[in-house]
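Entry details:
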Amino acid sequence: MAEFVEATERLAGIRPAVSIFGSSRAPEDSYCFALAERTARLLSDAGFAVISGGGPGVMKAANRGAFAGRSPAVGLNIELPREQHANEWQDISLRFEHFFARKVMFVKYATAYVVLPGGFGTLDELFEALTLVQTGKTRRMPIILMHEPFWRGLLDWLRERLVGEGMIEPADLGLLRVIDEPEKVVEAIFAFYEKRGFEPSPAEHEVLLNL
């Protein structure tokens, strides 16, 4: 409960924000790191706070890119026995012991998800967002995958197995977009909200209160 209260108080004013996910193991000379840093910098300069997991790899790249821009760099750090240590590029840094509390904050304050290559944690966060949007437990928002070659096999499997065997509706695949260029990611998010604005509608606000 303390984690929910502190995070809600400290993140209340950061909208609009974009949550960026990806591997904690991506080295600084990797394409993933460079892609995340560039994307985060453009989002930050465009007025979006950038939320990451606060650790190394893609998380560090996202925070560093945002930290150099106009808008806040937010890190939602998690206590783990290995791998996770907080990076230094955070305007707002929160620490969580519980994954479930941390994941709520990723969704609650996001106007978009940007997902780069990663492992189990990244996939967990991606499918959490897809499930919440699909079931109407959070508002519809852009969920963008970056670096198409990494995601190609998964997207083929979703199409062939989940849609092909009736596990999801064909329209559910429309919840995902694949965009490889950082500039186009920013354009796509603005285009999504062009006619409705970034603030949640009254109905969406009620949904977010019950997230």
The mean pLDDT is 91. The first strand starts at residue 17 and ends at 21. The radius of gyration is 16 Å. The beta strands are 17-21, 49-52, 73-78, 92-96, 112-115, 143-145, 176-178.
